[in-house]
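Support request, priority: normal
Reporter: lab tech (M.K.)
Component: structure prediction queue

Hi team, I submitted a job for PorT family protein from Hymenobacter jeongseonensis yesterday, and the status page still shows it as pending. I've pasted the exact input below so you can check whether something in the sequence is tripping the parser. The sequence length should be 377 residues. Please let me know if I need to resubmit or if it's stuck on your end.
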Amino acid sequence: MKLPVLFSILFLNAGAALAQNTQPDYLVKANGDTLRGRIQLIGSGASTVRLLRAGQPAVDINASEARSYGSAAGVGGVSKQIVAHGAPRFLSPLVTGYMSAYTGQNDEKELRFYLQPKDSTHAVEISPVTAQLSYAQLLVDCPQFEFGSNKIQSQYPYTATGVSALVVAYNQCRFPQQATQQIKRDMGLRTTFGLKAGVNTSDFSLASEDYRSSHTNAIGFQAGAMLNVATRTNFSVQVEAVYVKLQSLYSGDYNSYNSGIVPTSLTARMSFSQVQVPLLIRYTVGHGKLRPFLNAGPSLARNFNNSSVFSVPFTLTTSREIPIELDALSIGFAGGIGLNIQRLSAELRYDRMIDNREFYTYTPKHTSFRFDVGIRL
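Reply from support: The job had stalled in the queue. We restarted it manually and it finished. Here are the results:
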């Protein structure tokens, strides 16, 4: 795939994502006040909402102090009691009506679904092991449901889609005159798009023989785009499309090549380009103006413009240049540490790439140390 195509795909996807994620989060307190800012979920089972507002200290609010939270994309969570007179917790709504359905984590941090009749003060946890029995106790007086049968288990599986469809069908069966609404959920994903550029220094694995050489001209550069998809936790996923220019020059003695019959001064010149597309898991610390981060993940690269050669002595006065072959695609690993400074970022990155997966005595892989600066648009 050519460079313009890669960048076009990333730009178009980023533009569409950004258009859907420009509104701030909201939180409705128990007294009805609405607060706006950025929401982060913390604690066991996301039991606490941390509200982040520019120029103000972070505020932690639990389910006893709030009614709901979300954004323009939908509702993220509502405060619900799981047992009568029990402490409330945040659940994500799936369906509202005479019978409502929710999803969230239980005390053991397991994903569960919950049902709540309109006249009940609390929601009931539905375990996947006893789901059919719970349905039979809650979804009564509707003969079309044969709970416990293979048919209904396959028609309404224990998934968000299956449970939602079951509750909608039950409400339409028992209370067709009452409105039932499937809720547009806010999954808490926020996207940011940015540009980055920097310099690199690279070292290549060359001959497996005794190749004592000097290493020079190792400075290259890179530039590209990045798309970060953040959750309401400290973790995010970042994908990049970066043009990277790599080069190095090695020169020195290769004593085992010809035992002194001709001069043994050899050179290896590495020069080629890549479009790297790493997929990184990022962990960011803090929520202020300065936010350190770590990231790591696999990387795939498309190689092109390869002019790398290995110069071998041929006679006393001449040498022969052997092209250094590369695969079309390189695979490897990328990791780094950096700092976000409001919209700017600085990062030290380490790349380890395999550029030729066949058995050759030269150029199977390289390592690069990079320094990048970026800006979020």
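The two ends are 26 Å apart (CA to CA). The chain has a mean pLDDT of 86. Let us know if anything else looks off. Ticket resolved.
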